[in-house]
Specification:
- The chain folds into two domains: about 120 residues, no CATH class; about 90 residues, no CATH class.
- With about 250 residues, it is an alpha+beta fold.
- It is about 35% helix and about 30% strand.
């Protein structure tokens, strides 16, 4: 009798760097069980905490790491967390996923069967550490002294950032997204850290829509991990439109 596969090995797009700087990327997952399904009904968990506990329960091992804890999983890059959730969906429920997209042109619904195995994943080269995202904004931010700041440097978000903004994002998705970006700003022109913290998300709200979209696009296109962007053909108006596959619907 053929032995049943109980562990599924995979490689993280970025990986976990320990205190010595060594990067650990080889991981092993098991299928989700009833314990993990129950997490979706635990109202005490925010969306970020749900992802943390879901991965912690199914991440059998991360090579070179003594123990997989909630703190370790929360410290992983969001790109790795999204990738692990995708892999959990695949090994537990299969590669096919029916998704309904709403056309922005005619508001018609188009149902697509996504092949999760075919989704592109951007991985860093072995032992390569992620780089900051560097942007030059077109309009920039004008501070109280009238100085324009255009050079923006962002680090990649982690699970701790997701957990911090989750409750806000559930009530106000746009505010949650801005709060996440704000936490990831390493530098913005010559603004001091206390100014960034003092101004809060007002800095992002004061940016032009073009600059805001440039920031979001850079995070989505330049960061390692899953490429969730899709192009869907509307069956109602026959127009193609860009959209995003939402990981939150993987287990609906």
């Amino acid at each position: 009798m053929e032995a049943r596969v109980r562990e599924y090995e995979t490689v993280l797009p970025i990986g976990y760097a320990d205190q010595t700087g060594q990067v650990h990327r080889k991981a092993a997952l098991r299928k989700m069980r009833g314990h993990e399904e129950a997490l979706f009904y635990d109202s005490s968990l925010s969306a970020g905490q749900l992802v943390t506990e879901l991965i912690r329960g199914c991440l059998v091992r991360l090579d070179g790491v003594d123990a997989v804890t909630s703190d370790l999983v929360a410290g992983l890059y969001s790109a790795d967390r999204n990738y692990l959730v995708l892999e959990l969906r695949r090994i537990t429920l299969g590669d096919k996923l029916q998704v309904s997209y709403t056309c922005p042109n005619c508001a018609g619904e188009t149902t697509v069967t996504e092949d999760l195995a075919a989704i592109a994943v951007r991985r860093l080269a072995d032992d390569t550490r992620p780089q900051s995202i560097v942007l030059e904004l077109e309009d920039g931010y004008e501070d109280r002294d009238g100085k324009i700041h255009r050079d923006l440097r962002l680090r990649l978000p982690r699970g701790t950032d997701e957990e911090f903004v989750s409750r806000t994002a559930e009530q106000d998705p746009l505010r949650g997204r801005d709060a996440l970006v704000l936490r990831c700003i390493e530098s913005f022109g010559t603004l001091r850290r206390e100014a960034l913290e003092g101004y809060g998300i007002r800095i992002l709200r004061d940016l032009s829509m073009g600059d805001r979209r440039k920031i979001y696009a850079a995070i989505e296109s330049e960061a390692p991990g899953i490429d969730f962007r899709r192009t869907v053909h509307c069956g109602r108006c026959a127009q193609d439109f860009p959209t995003v596959l939402e990981a939150s619907g993987f287990f609906a």
